[in-house]
């Protein structure tokens, strides 16, 4: 989608980091450049660090993943032009407003105020969500984003096909499967980002009365896809639920990326690859007047992938697994009723930001039990 004349971009200048005394999660940092090292010791170091991060933390930092600081800053500048600098016109916001309750997809522009955060408090988030089909030629994008669509497609193709593929290779190895297994048999490949989506999101500074009523801007949740790749940014608000049950902030790492796994991997790995719960809180007082701009790719599985635990995995066969599907009266899970990735994805979108309604405890772990197409599905909470 080449554009002859493009709106100049204002340089992205990251906000200052907070000086507040906040508790940060002690997340591991994976130097992804060592993934392609000629030295087997380097490659094994990446795998062992990655494995420990997934099993113990559920979140990790990536560095040296193949993009320059200039390329990263350019994506922030594009999102800044659209969301902070009001590059999306009022007419475009109305025409492209998402209709996720009709489509089961987050396609398009999201205005503020869709979700209840607390009594008298609505969400304060604007975002624009891209799917593979909306990156094609046409009127799917506001003009400011259409001007830079080639940059956005190139950026996402690299994240999806290079960075994400390496992550799936490491995850396949954790399941003792061929390193191409998850890429070949699980990850979707329809367009530059498959069936996943790319999101530019901006949290407006919260009014003082909102900050008093609610410490949370986005409630705790797991991502429903395969992997999430989020560019690191300085406003302290993202928190991860640590293994000890405490919420801790995710610290800014310049030029880095924050990675976590989605529910698809938790389902098919029988719990060996956990989707870690996270949330967005109010930021510290010294950042309260700043816009919080975030950019992330949410990858997805093939539409027809069954979410049943993988029978191919030697790890699951040897160590067992936790099924997220309740058995019938005969004690057997009806495999014909286990949802596909597409069915689960649509269902999760339709009830996004919906609190748990049927909490059950299994082996000391709390789950939100959802009745879905004839079978009960257990979501960890």
From TrEMBL:
Keywords: Iron, Metal-binding, Oxidoreductase. Residues 209-298 form the Isopenicillin N synthase-like Fe(2+) 2OG dioxygenase domain. SUPFAM superfamilies: Clavaminate synthase-like. It holds the Pfam family 2OG-FeII_Oxy. The keyword Iron applies. One of its GO terms (molecular function) is metal ion binding. Gene3D superfamilies: B-lactam Antibiotic, Isopenicillin N Synthase, Chain. Coiled coil: none annotated. Residues 29-134 form the Non-haem dioxygenase N-terminal domain. It comes from the Eukaryota. This is Fe2OG dioxygenase domain-containing protein.
């Amino acid at each position: 989608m080449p554009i002859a004349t493009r709106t100049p971009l204002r340089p992205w200048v990251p906000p200052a980091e907070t000086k507040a005394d906040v508790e940060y999660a002690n997340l591991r940092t994976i130097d992804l450049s060592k993934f392609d090292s000629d030295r087997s010791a380097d490659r094994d170091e990446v795998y062992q660090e990655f494995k420990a991060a997934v099993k113990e933390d559920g979140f990790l930092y990536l560095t040296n993943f193949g993009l320059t600081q200039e390329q990263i800053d350019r994506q922030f500048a594009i999102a800044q032009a659209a969301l902070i600098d009001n590059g999306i016109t009022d007419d475009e916001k109305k025409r492209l407003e998402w209709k996720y309750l009709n489509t089961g997809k987050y396609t398009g522009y999201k205005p503020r105020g869709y979700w209840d955060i607390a009594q008298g408090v609505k969400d304060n988030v604007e975002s624009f969500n891209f799917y593979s089909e909306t990156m094609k030629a046409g009127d799917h994008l506001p003009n400011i984003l259409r001007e830079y669509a080639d940059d956005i497609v190139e950026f996402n193709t690299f994240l999806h096909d290079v960075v994400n593929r390496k992550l799936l290779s490491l995850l396949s190895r954790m399941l003792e499967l061929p390193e191409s297994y998850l890429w070949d048999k699980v990850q979707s490949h329809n367009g530059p980002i498959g069936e996943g989506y790319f999101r530019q999101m901006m949290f407006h500074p919260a009014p003082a009365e909102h900050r008093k009523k609610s410490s949370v801007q986005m409630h705790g949740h797991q991502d429903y896809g395969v992997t999430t790749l989020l560019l690191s940014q300085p406003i302290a608000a993202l928190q991860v639920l640590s293994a000890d049950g405490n919420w801790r902030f995710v610290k800014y790492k310049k030029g880095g990326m924050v990675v976590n796994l989605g529910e698809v991997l938790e389902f098919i790995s029988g719990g060996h690859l956990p989707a870690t719960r996270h949330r967005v809180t109010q930021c510290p007082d010294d950042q309260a007047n700043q816009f919080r701009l975030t950019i992330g790719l949410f990858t997805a599985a093939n539409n027809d992938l069954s979410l049943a635990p993988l029978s191919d995995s030697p790890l699951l066969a040897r160590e067992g697994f936790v099924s997220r599907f309740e058995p019938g009266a005969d004690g057997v899970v009806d495999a014909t009723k286990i949802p596909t990735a597409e069915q689960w994805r649509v269902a999760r979108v339709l009830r996004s930001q919906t609190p748990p309604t049927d909490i059950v405890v299994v082996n000391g772990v709390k789950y939100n039990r959802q009745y879905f197409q004839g079978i009960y599905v257990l979501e960890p909470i």
